[in-house]
Design a protein that fits this description.
mainly alpha, Serine Threonine Protein Phosphatase 5, Tetratricopeptide repeat, 3 domains, about 75% helix
């Protein structure tokens, strides 16, 4: 059997071939990797890649849904919450989000079931208790709302938003003294008097409301909203006194018109709507906005008007 001898040249040639082969393989591997790791071009592709890399996709969809909810895109928000539940059936935030959307859409039964489901999933969670408490407050079910909000604030005493909601619920139920400490801690003393004054105003309790607005202005002279409503209530009282004087001199017909004109006490639903639209603590998220004061119209009614003419004049002022 012949023996092959490897000369120095043979060894060098073999090593050179091996290096060329390895270099080629490495080059091909780099090309394949580069092709596979090519960054996405379109927005849809970028979103798809980002979703695949998420560790908690349910939280992504919940956050996205909350943003859509705040922007008023409720249909898209519902889709996001549903996808979040598909990723994680135990997502309490997704359940609460869908419940809020049902509440806004007027599906009260479905909303209540959703809130109760969230409460069953995590009965000690203060945000869950606060959410269902706010739901009952919106329905004027104070006997259910106040205990839930009270339990929530015990578990999260530093949460000013929950404390504010509790104070508003207590004041709306008529417990002004109990509401005051919570509102002071949530928004400040002047704002607390303002909120209670606003509720009293919408109930037609002008004397008590005037005192609350006055106290708010004394505590914070630059409080323009409180000053506006204080002036409005005082004008309202003056107009009522003037109307009473004109009616009494006009005889029985004027008296009947005065009775028809007298402002009726608003329903509990009207009071709640005023609270949800007009009394928000400054700097607290997910809470109602304070309404901006309308233009200040200081024009006084012409003298010598009877009750019917006075009523027509006031209606024209509001247009």
């Amino acid at each position: 059997m012949p023996v092959t001898r490897f000369t120095k040249q043979t060894w060098l040639a073999g090593i050179a071939c091996a290096l060329l082969i390895c270099s080629g393989c490495s080059s091909m591997k780099d090309q394949i990797v580069k092709k596979n790791d090519q960054p996405p071009d379109t927005l849809e592709e970028k979103i798809s890649v980002a979703k695949k890399r998420l560790k908690h996709p349910d939280k992504f969809y919940v956050t996205h849904g909350q943003l859509q909810e705040k922007m008023g895109d409720l249909e898209s928000a519902r889709t996001s919450y549903q996808v979040a539940l598909g990723e994680n059936p135990k997502s309490i935030d997704a359940v609460l989000g869908l419940s809020r959307l049902d509440q806004v859409a007027g599906r009260k039964i479905e909303a209540e079931k959703g809130f109760q489901k969230a409460l069953e999933m995590d009965p000690k969670n203060p945000q869950v208790r606060a959410s269902i408490g706010q739901f009952y407050a919106a329905e004027q079910k104070w006997d259910k709302a106040i205990p839930l909000l009270s339990e929530a604030i015990k578990a999260a005493p530093a949460d000013k938003n929950i404390r504010y909601q509790l104070g508003i619920a207590m004041a709306s139920s008529g417990d002004y003294q109990g509401a005051m400490p919570h509102l002071i801690r949530a928004v400040g003393e002047a704002e607390a008097h303002y909120n209670i004054g606003y509720i009293l105003k919408d109930r037609g309790e002008l004397q008590a409301s005037e005192q609350q607005f006055l106290q708010a202005v004394l505590l914070k002279p630059e409080f323009n909203e409180a000053q506006y409503w204080l002036d409005e209530i005082r004008r309202e009282k003056e107009n009522r006194l003037m109307l009473a004087g004109v009616s009494s001199s006009a005889g029985a017909k004027g008296t009947a018109k005065q009775a028809a004109y007298t402002k009726a006490k608003p329903s509990a639903k009207t009071v709640q709507n005023a609270v949800s639209q007009g009394m928000a603590p400054a700097g607290i998220p997910q809470s109602p906005r304070r309404i901006s004061a309308p233009a200040d119209n200081t024009q006084q009614p012409p003298p010598g008007m009877n009750a019917e003419q006075m009523e027509q004049w006031r209606n024209q002022r509001q247009l």
